[in-house]
Amino acid sequence: MTHFLLTCVELTETQRSYLQTTFSINQVVPIEMFDRADSGKVTIIYGWSDTLPSLTHFSSLKWIQTLSAGVNYLPLEELAKRNIIVTTTSGIHGHQMTESVLGMLFSYTRNIRESILKQEKREWGVANKGTDLVDKRVLIFGTGNIAKQLAKTLQVFGCDVFGINRSGRQVEHFTQTFNYQDGQSKLSTMDIVINLMPGTTETYHYFNDCLFSNMKKGVIFINMGRGTSVNTSDLISHIKTEKIAFAALDVFEEEPLPKDSELWGLKNVLITPHISGATDKYNDRAFTILTDNLMRFMKHEVLKNVVDLDLGY
Amino acid sequence: MTHFLLTCVELTETQRSYLQTTFSINQVVPIEMFDRADSGKVTIIYGWSDTLPSLTHFSSLKWIQTLSAGVNYLPLEELAKRNIIVTTTSGIHGHQMTESVLGMLFSYTRNIRESILKQEKREWGVANKGTDLVDKRVLIFGTGNIAKQLAKTLQVFGCDVFGINRSGRQVEHFTQTFNYQDGQSKLSTMDIVINLMPGTTETYHYFNDCLFSNMKKGVIFINMGRGTSVNTSDLISHIKTEKIAFAALDVFEEEPLPKDSELWGLKNVLITPHISGATDKYNDRAFTILTDNLMRFMKHEVLKNVVDLDLGY
């Protein structure tokens, strides 16, 4: 069988020729050079782009190797209907996302954010002594690869780390994990709550008024999962009452966050523009997933990081 | 022998009565209630204050348990002449200072500082993908308690951590340590340089034009030790040429940093107001050092964290 790989990811010349020689891929075409008339020949798509022709034109497509961990931007139903395999880059986000969570935490607990804002006014001094992570109780929603690496790292800092997943099954690096129901009853004892859940219909607006109400007064809330998991207006209410002492948000219901969103101006909110998964090493790490999966694909073996298209992750 | 403890550190009522009953200290007097006429009775000072009477009035003083790791603010020569013991709280700074170093690092490498500044203008997006700490080469000047904990933690993030001390003796948690001389030749291979040296005559302006010139183009420089270790105008020059891509400074030659210091306005500089050692748990942790040392003091045993008054640390 001949293969045509359409890549929406920038490849180096070395990477491109490696793909062609090692995997006998006849054509490796970058999206900028792609002729839509060739859509019917494409068997593999690497990455994804909103500018691609509609899926119906990709009549020979067998597999999409995405560049992300979450896939809620893909036409999952149609892909399922056509039995197209979707794989993610799950496993390469742990380092940078763990560092982003910690950077956001420390920006607050170590008074770095306050210092940055005061530096703009040449002002010396901060309002309080700050704190450190020793003995802090952390609850992470999600217990996948990223959550596991984060949990393991938080334990190095002396945190007691709990997790939440669908079944409540125990997962390494967590002191204890709960299912969605049991987890809610633990919320009030947690100093830090971190969302890493995928964006699915099940998690839509999961963080709502009720959930925020059950949190401890003065909690730190971090959203690194998907913006759709949070009811934004409920979140804003609980930030305003200072129930949530500090919210660090990397993902939003609408991205880019609209200019007129109230979130921008709240003093206890840190906004980052959906960057926690990014790193200058990303494409190199993703390429090792692609080549590993190509090896399996050519041998008709089961691929790594296959998405369950019904569950959406 | 009767004891009179003058405390410049706020104690809880429980802590105060614990000192009196457990150690048979006749008087535990907070500085706000202290009658200068009693200076001659004071045998122990806990903490330090610029408002204390001159040392000559403390004719019975045996021991100062400071609240800090560095002691360059004390009249060390006079203390040495009078054989007054000085002990530090060395060992209780590791957690919070490690977190501050990481917070400063991540504020840059994870684009958090840029996001904070853009949030003020409701601007979405950052200039580049950022990076992560995996495989970064870090050189720490100083290999004491704080440096060891920092080195151990940086290794968790995949850094290769090197240290510098006077003798070049090997220290746990460092891949390798060098003496001052050998260390300089390694500078050009380091991505991140962190100063944790004490402020002594030996370290005065140690970081000067020559040392900065030997660093790698694009280095990250963090000063958490003492401001006097750095020649500020040399530092500013190398920030302006972008030899130093990012400088995070918690200590300065003059503190508070003067309003007209050029450092405030440099775009690649993060200034925090000498807060990296602070935490809401500080006084509780220091109190355990005080009581541990009181136990030894009463039994005429050697105290912990005794300062070599000639070396100054």
Automatic annotation (TrEMBL), chains A, B:
Q: What is this protein called?
A: Hydroxyacid dehydrogenase
Positions of the D-isomer specific 2-hydroxyacid dehydrogenase catalytic domain: 54-307
Q: Which family does it belong to?
A: Belongs to the D-isomer specific 2-hydroxyacid dehydrogenase family.
Q: Which Pfam families match?
A: 2-Hacid_dh, 2-Hacid_dh_C
Q: Which UniProt keywords apply?
A: NAD, Oxidoreductase
- By its UniProt entry, which InterPro entries does this protein fall under? D-isomer_2_OHA_DH_cat_dom (IPR006139), D-isomer_DH_NAD-bd (IPR006140), NAD(P)-bd_dom_sf (IPR036291)
D-isomer specific 2-hydroxyacid dehydrogenase NAD-binding domain residues are: 102-276
Q: Which Gene3D superfamilies match?
A: NAD(P)-binding Rossmann-like Domain (3.40.50.720)
- Tell me yes or no: is NAD among this UniProt entry's keywords: yes
UniProt-recorded Gene Ontology molecular function terms: NAD binding; oxidoreductase activity, acting on the CH-OH group of donors, NAD or NADP as acceptor
Q: Which domain of life is it from?
A: Bacteria
